[in-house]
Amino acid sequence: MNKRGLFVVLEGGEGAGKSTHARRLRDWLAARGRSVVLTREPGGTPLAEAVRGLILRDWPEGMDAATEALLMFAARAAHLHGLIRPALEAGKDVICDRFVDASYAYQGAGRGLPAERIAALERFTLQGLQPDRVLVLDLAPELGLARAKTRGVENRFETESLEFMRRVRAAYLERARRDPRRYVIVDASQPLQAVAAELQAAVEACL
Ligand SMILES: Nc1ncnc2c1ncn2[C@@H]1O[C@H](COP(=O)(O)OP(=O)(O)O)[C@@H](O)[C@H]1O
Ligand SMILES: [Mg+2]
Questions:
Q1: Residue predicted with more confidence, 2 or 59
Q2: Residue 133 belongs to a domain with what CATH number?
Q3: Which one of 8, 78, 171, 189 has the largest count of C-beta atoms within 10 Å of its C-beta?
């Protein structure tokens, strides 16, 4: 039987470098002969990507925090079923651009849902599954927004207030500090190469 693959998550605010470093980590692990799946949330499978479309759209009546959280976890359940669990069980490494911590940060700290309600959804959906490493790319929201702007089209989250983004950042840092064995905080204001080196070291430590 294959050994279970490594489950690595990248977290952080908009423009922190998650997608950039998710690709780099994928390439770095693949170059070491590992079989790697790169994926993202919300999304990652056809069903979960369809739910992503619902989440990111602007609805005439708006979207309340509970609906947003439930849709995030619906997408996550589909992603776990359709991609993450099968890949890990097949011995593949999974690099995921955002995961459950994003729900605590955005729907919890950002939108104001109590963490206990997010925790209830987490227990229901994940049933004990945890990433092996959560890499938190920490960056001042002003800097992240400036970087994200170079990408063009903005979604509902990228147009949130700086106050919202500061709450998101603080929530990531707090969760990371609570569990230093699984979380690594990386200063994402450093040059790309320095960030990449810290992330690789953090992943290497659990190979
Ligand atoms: N350490 C860095 N220094 C300078 N620019 C960066 C750095 N990390 C990422 N970028 C750039 O910032 C932009 C946003 O990065 P991206 O990976 O899309 O962020 P995220 O997925 O976290 O929103 C991209 O143009 C990327 O090349
Ligand atoms: Mg991204």
A1: 59
A2: 3.40.50.300
A3: 8
